[in-house]
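Suppose you are handed a protein chain with no further information: no name, no annotation, nothing but its sequence. What can you learn? This example shows the usual starting point.
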Amino acid sequence: MQSLARPACHQLARHVRRTERSLASFTVPAARLTPGRRHYTTSRRPLYDDGSARSAVINVLNNIASKREVQQYLAQFTSVSSQQFAVIKVGGAIMTDYLDELCASLRNLNQMGLFPVVIHGAGPQLNKMLEKAGVEPEYKEGIRITDGKTLGIARKLFLEENLKLVEALEAWGVRARPITSGVLMAQYKDKDVYKFVGEVNDVQTASVKAAIAEGYIPVLTCMAESVDGQVLNVNADKAAAELARALVPLKIVYLSEKGGIHDKETGKLIEAINLDEEYEGYMKKPWVIHGTRSKIRDIKTLLDDLPRSSSVAIIHPESLERELFTHSGAGTLIRRGTKLQQATSIADFDDLAKLKQTLVRDREGLDSKSVVDRYLESLKDRQFRAYYDENFEALAIVLPPTEGKPPLAHLATLTMTRSAWLSNIADNVFQSLKRDFPKLAWTVKQDDENLTWFSEKADGSIARQGEVLFWYGIDSPEEVRELMSDFVQHGRQMFGDTNL
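A reasonable first move is to predict its three-dimensional structure. Written in structure tokens, the prediction is:
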């Protein structure tokens, strides 16, 4: 019997090796806690048949990803062209403090046949140079006023930083091409107020695509040009967003030394934001102000203009590969997500036939339809909460805690199509479950191909005769022991006839 549990005091955990124990010898060992898994990306089409590149892909994925994530990645392997892989915005602080980590990650991506488009800023470096030159920086509404002298210093600095990054990549064995003009076209933001500050109004992608076609990673600065050839300073984040609108990549990555967006109230890293469901809620939070507010708002505006498959990640450079290829919480992933519907009674479902069809699809046996009918009939007399998407790609039914027992909800039903598993719908569902039910338990067959995913969503688990009981949110070791004991004695029948 294999057991895994988590005392409240433990925030990190380890695997527990398979042992045979009697009920009398049950203890609560230290448990494994793994961050929730997340999104992935893809490769360029020509490399699907390239043996060395494909081998590199498999090697990297096997080292950092689960079997399901490998399948997800390979399922998307030929879905986009090279320039649609990723746009990566590199802040000036990253260029100064994490250049080697950045180059190492880009080298690994390049060895896999991937060509992200890199655009960088140099804000901290510019502040230092202006200070040395005796230029007092001026800001209005958070925007740097760029006069002629500031522009001259900035232009020289950006060219130097661009060359620095390109040479560093070359030293790491990566073919990189500096592109310092001819891509970002801009108009004056307000010449009388901000001087030589621009807003990007057009993106010429020919040189970017040509660089990739010839096997180079393009490296751009956030300097733009007006129609009459005047160089203009543009915000690096906004420049990256406009570049993304033009290239339509699967992933837009903002590298940050902070590693993501943190909840100012709890201090914890926010692993994912599903905009369709959570945007309005975040905009009402008292700590979402100033830069954080504008960043989330700008990202929503960007993703509204891109396909639903696109997403934005704010991560530390050391986490770049893990963010791109796995679902682990390396930073903050922002996506449109899938808006889930909820039901608390059978009458809440608009299409009962579709509901029955969804419940039958995972069941085997000639009596599957009658089993589903009996299950739905039983729900008429029970409290429950169901979560599902518009197309019923995913359906979860949770039974709330029973009076007189510990407040542990039961995930009675979870059915997903392969498409739901290979997208973010499964993660969306579980994020909603954790939001609404602080304590939850469920059972899964031990040979389920998504067992690793379930394990990562749980705080603990125990296996018995081909079944695995998972749970999260139980803080008391006594409650854990009681739950484990009940499962060892009764298996999934501990939940009565509520499982489907």
